Amino acid sequence: MIFFLQMLVTGIVVGSIYGLVALGFVLIYRASGALNLANGEFVIIGPYICLILMTAYKIPFIFALFITLIFSAILGLTVERLVIRPLQNAPVVSVIMATIGLSSLLGGAVHMIWGHQTRTFPQVFPPTPINISGIIITPVYLWSFVVVIVILILFSIFFKFSKMGIAMRAVADDRHAALSMGISVKYVYAATWTIAAVVAAIGGVLLGNINGLSPTMAAIGLTVLPVVILGGLDSVLGAIVGGFIIGILQNLAGGYLDPLIGGGLKDVIPFIVVLIILMLKPYGLFGSRTIERV
């Protein structure tokens, strides 16, 4: 039972980070109807910037994180202006192909600048584990979970009550109606890509503190894709719930099933779950149904 609870706690923490990264996918899909397949590269660029600021320039973690978020916001804004905006009236598949090319470009830049080796962050969180009735929780897991929950709550408030959040929801529901009401769709798109880049950087920094940092961490973009599909491509709540489900199932499969079959199931289980869910609910757990009248 202690082993099960240990796997469950780890899965909840990792799943919360999955949900945060998936939020970036959902925001861009709601705004433009396209998937950002360069989201994994957004996740790893921010942590590298934060790590360099901390190690090479001896900047404290909080200030390095703040500078990283500013850099990520500028990166997201630049990508939207130079890559996405010229394709605003193009077919959705053109936008998706552009993000694939952007993924290769950013991934190559990461390899060229920072190399292939795994790097570790300086000690940011207290190293002493917390023992709760036999369940060992390291402070980096606990703080990561708290940070993600606070961010998700803040974003929920932002989407529901702020002027920009309401404008983003309006554009997501009906772009033409939003335009007729005087909402600047270009401004909303820019804000969406900026926010997506920022939340990806936060998730990357947290994962970097947990597992170390290497270019292979960009694979989280592929891992989080089942989270988005499971929860529903256009559902913020679905991204959060899907993140917890996939995180928990991944860790339970890794703890119980991988030792029996020699490993590998942990990485495959998200896609197996998505296939099963899509057979039962093609639009995901919380996705909006599309109705076409002919």
From TrEMBL:
Top-level taxon in the UniProt lineage: Bacteria
Heme among keywords: no
Swiss-Prot/TrEMBL keywords: Amino-acid transport, Cell membrane, Membrane, Transmembrane, Transmembrane helix, Transport
UniProt xrefs under CDD domains: TM_PBP1_LivH_like
Compartments where located: Cell membrane
GO MF annotation: an example: transmembrane transporter activity
One Pfam family matching this protein: BPD_transp_2
GO-annotated biological processes: amino acid transport
Stretches that traverse the bilayer: 6-29, 36-55, 61-79, 91-114, 134-159, 187-207, 213-230, 237-256, 268-286
Topology of the protein relative to the lipid bilayer: Multi-pass membrane protein
GO CC terms: plasma membrane
Annotated family: Belongs to the binding-protein-dependent transport system permease family. LivHM subfamily.
Record-given protein name: Amino acid/amide ABC transporter membrane protein 1 (HAAT family)
